[in-house]
Specification:
Elements (H helix, E strand, L loop, with lengths): L5 H15 L17 E2 L27 E12 L5 E7 L5 E7 L4 E7 L7 E4 L15 E2 L24 E2 L1 E6 L6 E7 L5 H7 L2 E7 L1 H4 L9 E9 L30 E2 L2 E4 L2 E2 L2 E5 L2 E8 L6 E6 L8 E6 L2 E9 L1 E4 L4 E7 L8 E6 L8 E9 L22 E11 L7 E3 L9 E3 L5 E9 L3 E5 L4 E6 L14 E4 L4 E8 L4 E7 L2 H5 L3 E6 L1
This protein binds CU-O-CU linkage and copper (II) ion (2 copies).
Length: 519
């Protein structure tokens, strides 16, 4: 068990089982036990899959190289053909514009809040100083609001004396002292992240570096980000979400039947329902992000290419793997990223290749389709060595911590870590900067566990080594029901208060979050 005391682990797991009632199935919607949550059903006619063209979000341009402006605002967009849908978007679009950065070159993003609610912007996967990390109470209040006004939306969180609240705007500085990777940014307001992301506050942030540039991987229009997210639509075309407080101003949380997670029946890729991409028969890099609130996917190509292994993974949350790994299917939990290369040259021209979801059924069993339309020259390849970043060494760990993620009944504080609901004033861990730690994560149900600030490496799942989908540096771990996993990480560079939490956004909003404070 890679340096972990097996007897201690067994004792902890036994205690966990006794305490939290493992095995009690949560209400589960479409998708059975593959996701924790309950499905909403759309109230209007849905388009035939593979009729809406695939698009890629626009790349954000900047006036002076590394400085970007984003206005968070309400907009009406067409997601289902001919149906207007009100959203909240970064620059009024969903997904938001893609930010493209260079490793080690600071990127400054100036966010303006033109929404009627407070917001918080977080760069997921970013190695970011605390002041710019988007702590859940570091609110940007709506432009023009008076922060001292009693009853002001967000006042609830003013009970956090360390919060840095701004009005109307805020500048986030990202040093990006990290490897090339597929990151994303999204809202992170305490208690309202699920609802705000569902309305559209999510976008890609890609980081490039010299190591990756030196590889002969597909690039340009053969390097496609794929933000996969499920949603459901009301009769009037609006996105349905079962918020307790639909104004998203006062009371966080969702109606009780949905407290395990909100699932939709429409699968969007880059904001389009089950889109169709026409592509040449060459290698493509697909940067797959699961931006769903609660849904897990098992993605596969149908038909598989002759000989199988069609999804060649080259990267994970934290960047390139040491070497490629060919998969027939990929399991992806909320917030995880899988960077894969698919060689569409293995299919005859004219093929229709569907990206399917083996965890779904009916409308959620398919994601998008590729139509292989023509031959083109392809001088790319997937090298057998991708990255030489040395692995983290668990033998150097100076501390081992055990974190139990479990259900403590319904209600706004029902999802907890070590039996505690999120409280900005309490640190569950205080790692010293520059040290390595092993964290053992134990679950009752599905909990995708995300750590801010760091990337980690998975050491074990239960009594075996890392799972099939755990390779590389990760910032989110797909922890499955009644599972114990161990990860090793190093806390570097930035002192301060950061969060770790379940990235099932309903669990996160209902308190399955805690601080760690680096000192
Ligand atoms: Cu994707 Cu704490 O966030
Ligand atoms: Cu994050
Ligand atoms: Cu969870």
């Amino acid at each position: 068990m890679s340096g972990i005391d097996r007897r201690t682990f067994l004792t902890v797991l036994a205690a966990a089982s006794a305490g939290v009632g493992i095995g009690v199935p949560l209400i589960s919607g479409i998708g059975g036990s593959s996701s924790t949550g309950t499905a909403l059903r759309s109230q209007l006619a849905l388009p035939e899959p593979f009729t809406v063209p695939f698009t890629v979000p626009p790349v954000l341009t900047s006036s002076d190289g590394d400085h970007y402006e984003i206005v968070q605002r309400a907009a009406t967009v067409e997601i289902l053909p001919g149906v207007p849908t009100p959203i909240w978007g970064y620059n009024g679009i969903f997904p938001g514009p893609t930010i493209v950065s260079r490793s080690n070159r600071p990127t400054v993003v100036h966010h303006h809040n033109a929404l009627p609610v407070p917001v918080v912007a977080h760069l997921h996967g970013g190695h970011t100083p605390a002041a710019s990390d988007g702590y859940p109470t570091d609110l940007i209040l709506p432009a023009g609001s008076m922060p001292d006004m009693p009853g002001m939306p967000g006042m609830r969180t003013m009970a956090d004396p360390r919060a840095t609240v701004t009005v109307g705007e805020r500048t986030y500085t990202y040093p990006l002292r990290q490897r090339a990777a597929t990151l994303w940014y999204h809202d992170h307001r305490m208690g309202f992240t699920g609802a705000s992301v569902w309305r559209g506050l999510a976008g890609f942030h890609l980081v490039h570096d010299d190591e990756e540039d030196a590889l002969p991987l597909p690039r340009g229009d053969r390097d496609l980000p794929l933000m996969i997210a499920d949603r459901a639509f009301a009769t009037d075309g609006s996105l349905c979400y079962p918020s307790v407080d639909p104004t998203l101003q006062h009371t966080p949380g969702v109606d009780t039947p949905y407290s395990g997670g909100v699932l939709g029946d429409v699968i969007l890729v880059n904001g389009k329902p089950w889109p169709l991409a026409s592509i040449p028969a060459v290698r493509h890099r697909l940067r797959i992000l699961n931006a769903s609130n609660a849904r897990r996917y098992r993605l596969a190509l149908d038909p598989p290419p002759p000989g199988g292994g069609g999804l060649v993974q080259i990267g994970s949350d934290g960047g390139l793997l040491d070497r490629p790994r060919a998969h027939d299917a990929i399991e992806i939990a909320p917030a995880e990223r899988f960077d894969v290369v698919v060689d569409f040259g293995r299919y005859p021209v004219g093929s229709r290749v569907t990206l399917v979801n083996r965890f779904g059924s009916g409308s959620t069993a398919v994601v998008m389709r590729f139509h292989v339309t023509r031959r083109e020259h392809d001088d790319t390849r997937v090298p057998t060595t991708l990255s030489t970043t040395p692995p983290l060494d668990p033998a150097r760990a100076v501390a081992t911590r055990t974190l139990l993620f479990s259900d403590h009944g319904s209600g706004a504080m029902g999802w907890q870590i070590n039996g505690r609901a999120f409280s900005p004033g309490y640190a569950a861990a205080t790692p010293r900067l520059g040290t390595t730690e092993v964290w053992r994560l134990i679950s009752d149900f599905h909990h995708p566990i995300h750590l801010h600030l760091v990337q980690f490496q998975v050491l074990s799942r239960g009594l075996s080594g890392p799972g099939e989908y755990d390779a590389g540096r990760k910032d989110t771990l797909d922890l499955r029901p009644a599972e114990e996993a161990a990860v090793v990480t190093r806390f570097d560079d930035y002192p301060g208060r950061f969060v770790f939490h379940c990235h099932n956004l309903e669990h996160e909003d209902m308190a399955m979050m805690a601080n760690f404070e680096t000192t």
